[in-house]
Amino acid sequence: MDVYEKSLRLHAEKRGKFEVRSLIEVKDKESLSLAYTPGVAQPCREIAKDPYAAYLYTRKWNTVAVVSDGSAVLGLGNIGGLAGLPVMEGKSILFREFAGIDSIPIVLSGQDEDDIVRAVEMIAPSFGGINLEDICAPKCFAVERRLKEKLDIPVFHDDQHGTAIVVAAALMNALKLAQKQLASAKIVICGAGSAGIAICRLLLECGAGNITMVDRAGIVCEGDAALTDAQQEIAKVTNRARLRGTLADAVRGADVFIGVSAPRQLSRDMVASMAERSIVFAMANPEPEIYPQEALEAGAYIVGTGRSDFPNQINNVLAFPGVFRGALDVRAKDISEGMKVAAARALAALVGEELSRECIIPSAFDKRVAPAVAAAVAEQAKKEGLARA
């Protein structure tokens, strides 16, 4: 029985992956009158006078909505909200298991940008934060931007920013081993969708100075008519040499390859053409842009993937639980670029004496991860004036 059959059997056995449990035992008239009517009227009055009191009298302080329209679910594509519900339930249990956060999966029946924004805006009062999930590009950029403008709670598209944080952390450590500097390293990102653009933006925020992006049409260059709005914006601050051509042209002499694209995009010959002590992060799932052994045999110095069966798994579960834990703990109004950088640096710092070519990032099951990321995020929120507690 393979992993898919085992998972299907588990889902059928459990009939879902989480349940809602009461914190108050309702066993007699008095407990009923306190938990519900008439006693519940008093916290309602307090919240009516001061909406911020909801953080004191309700579970808002520790609850995140995981919202998806199902338009870009894992490697399955646009399967719709309902078919994506098992993924959103899975995300919810990761919030609970790794950071003690209550999370409610919410899948939408429509995929129109305006409808998504309006739906999330309407349900937002119940939550301390919004995690957007599996919404396709370029729509995801506009949805997140509009919600961040409208809401006074953190809004975070994990497919973009969770991935970017972990990539940045892994790259910091990989460059240290390769004895290279982020500011001068020649970095190529293959995949100019939501994850690729977010990775690029965060690496630039961390101090990267030479990034070239590649999509299915070739090297991304400012002024190309076929680029989306998001790609046009990122093209203004990348590809300084104004290169044109294919992925093979882009990676020649590159120090770093970051793949968030499709299987088998990077060949052995391409890896061999990269600079000495090159770094390859091939994160397409389930099949990477190149398999680790192939990349290493072709001359790569350090290789990471998105898979758990190879060393250096770059998995966003290392980021989003701690990021939201830190934001919720200080009741942050937003999750800023500075908070993401702080999360990446905290994550990288957890790899101490064990740092090696096969250990550039902590394990997803390292109990230090979420607390360390949360502390860094909370501290940065305070520095930036985004904290309210």
Short structural summary:
The chain is α/β, with parallel strands linked by helices and 389 residues long. The chain has 16 helices and ten strands. It has a six-stranded mixed β-sheet with strand order 7-6-5-8-9-10. Strands 2-1-3-4 form a four-stranded parallel β-sheet, sandwiched between helices.
Write the layout of secondary structure elements.
Layout lengths: L2 H12 L14 H7 L5 H9 L4 H4 L5 E6 L16 H15 L2 E6 L5 H11 L5 E4 L6 H12 L4 E3 H21 L8 E4 L3 H13 L4 E5 L2 E2 L9 H7 L11 H5 L4 E4 L8 H5 L5 E5 L9 H6 L2 E6 L14 H10 L7 H13 L19 H15 L6
Parallel strand pairs: 1-2, 1-3, 3-4, 5-6, 5-8, 8-9, 9-10
Antiparallel strand pairs: 6-7
What is the number of helices?
A: 16
Work out the helicity level.
40-55%
* Class by alpha and beta content: alpha/beta
Which geometry do the CA atoms define?
A: globular
> Major sheet, described briefly?
6 strands, mixed
Can you characterise this structure?
This protein has helices at 3-14, 29-35, 41-49, 54-57, 85-99, 113-123, 139-150, 158-178, 194-206, 229-235, 247-251, 268-272, 292-297, 320-329, 337-349, 369-383; strands at 63-68, 102-107, 129-132, 155-157, 187-190, 211-215, 218-219, 256-259, 278-282, 300-305. It is of the alpha/beta class and 389 residues long. It is built from 16 helices and ten strands. It has two domains: 3-153, Rossmann fold (3-Layer(aba) Sandwich), CATH 3.40.50.10380; 163-389, Rossmann fold, CATH 3.40.50.720. The protein has a six-stranded mixed β-sheet with strand order 7-6-5-8-9-10. Helices cover 42% and strands 12% of the residues. The mean pLDDT is 96.
